[in-house]
């Protein structure tokens, strides 16, 4: 099936400069796809049964083959599932996939995956009166919170919160809230559902399959035999045909949905209205509008008056999720282009007209397909830009980079603010290419997270403490002992008495001898080892100071004088605790550079180079490299 949709959320405009964008709405039953060729111009809509394909990559490949679209650079998927990190395992279907691996497999520069109701929520502000039907009274307030729910294969929930001139969509799994019956009929439904599941959520009774469950519960009560083949679609048809049992089931279903909608309204304060999407309500049609839905929506006792002023709408727009996921993708790409952190992109744009025609082709490749530059070898970059390899190098140097590697690093830095930080799980059977890329991606992502969330005020305090220390002892157990030994290797070169202990007995013996002016740097991923905590308590009672490198909200972080927190995602079953160790080593390097800078600070009237020279030890290669950087880097910066 192929059709077209014109979005009212954004005016139609010129063609996307980076080519058509692939939009997808993936549910437990069907996967829907479309191409957006310009803002608001969505067409080539096709629907594929999810059960016919082994995974999302295969059905996307089929759609691209069927539409003969050619190259697609950017894609966005709304999926009926929570999205938290790189790995997605669908609740109502058997698809499981890595977002990053799928992006690489399909050759996209961007693959954005969001919860389907987050996408649908982003479409709500642009809906017209022709794309929604109001049920009951109430009037919406402008710039107020909007609630969204939708019974389909599951029960999706989301909301929109106004923020200045934009909307923030909530990711929610509210459909899994525990079902609470409101009358005897619903008590019966709950008892029937409990024979099937230990936990009965609203999704069990107020999503599409819930209509069949209610019908069977009522039939069992009335002694009516129901064929195994009867499903929710059959119940809907029988209700339209006037069957009493089916009508009772539909009314019960709509009443439960009304209660749940009222719960969402009072929870979010949805004075901007409650919107209902999904296909189930549309198929009920007039049966829904005549049902107890609105009565039960307002039935909140003391808050009935409050809810009577909140409007409820049924979304009638065709494929509204496409409108929302298009808006999210457009914002993502706009942020990439306009982010203040992407200075390299701005420099390319500013210099583009001054470049040679061949160099401009490399510039366009970098602007439109930055991942190609970052990931590809120079031979492939030159081929894609239709230039020679020396031209690629000349382009990099025109931007002030020393070469292609330097340019790749700067380009990747410019992308970090717009590419979602994710974690890819390593699986048995991965090739070296796959698990190598995942390990590197995971490490880079963790370092970027550290850069964004590290408390640099605490870093400054830790550096001041270490720089003024009489003695520094580094404590680490297990893997953390490696970090402690590395820290000892770096810090003893500053002329500060240091030692590293990886044995609890030695830690306890040494800590008892410490006092004021002495510092312990305790490295621990868990931050919970009771023996280590007791050792540190003894040292602090003696007057010593403790700097902790650990995870947030751990006993160690709470007890330390200063805590440097290094949270990250790590899956124990699939890899060693490698990322935490790398982050701890990075923190040690930051502290070492900080102490080197403090000690290299010139005295009044002294030149920096002279001060550095007085500190350099002929046998101290590593610290000497830091001091060389301080000397030459600072003087170079001054010349610029």
From TrEMBL:
EC numbers, comma separated:
2.7.1.2
Keyword Metal-binding listed: no
The domain of life for this entry's organism is Bacteria
Region listing for Disordered, in residue ranges? 1-21
Compartments, as annotated in UniProt: Cytoplasm
Q: Residue span of the signal peptide, if any?
A: none
The family database entries (InterPro entries) matched by this protein are listed as: ATPase_NBD, Bacterial_glucokinase, Glucokinase, Homeodomain-like_sf, HTH_RpiR, RpiR-like_SIS, SIS_dom, SIS_dom_sf
Any keyword Lyase?
no
The reactions it catalyses are:
D-glucose + ATP = D-glucose 6-phosphate + ADP + H(+)
Q: Pfam families, alphabetically?
A: Glucokinase, HTH_6, SIS
Q: Which residues form a coiled coil?
A: none
One GO MF term on file is:
DNA binding
What CDD domains does the record point to? Answer: ASKHA_NBD_GLK, SIS_RpiR
Give me the residues that bind ATP, please.
24-29
Give all residue intervals belonging to the HTH rpiR-type domain.
342-418
Q: Which residues form the SIS domain?
A: 462-601
Biological process annotations from GO: glycolytic process
A cellular component term, taken from the record's GO annotations: cytosol
Q: Which UniProt keywords apply?
A: ATP-binding, Cytoplasm, DNA-binding, Glycolysis, Kinase, Multifunctional enzyme, Nucleotide-binding, Transcription, Transcription regulation, Transferase
Q: Which family does it belong to?
A: In the N-terminal section; belongs to the bacterial glucokinase family. Belongs to the bacterial glucokinase family.
Q: Which NCBIfam families match?
A: glk, PRK00292.1-3, PRK14101.1
**Identification of the protein by name:** Glucokinase
Native source species: Caballeronia telluris
Q: Where is the organism placed in the taxonomic lineage, from the top?
A: Bacteria, Pseudomonadati, Pseudomonadota, Betaproteobacteria, Burkholderiales
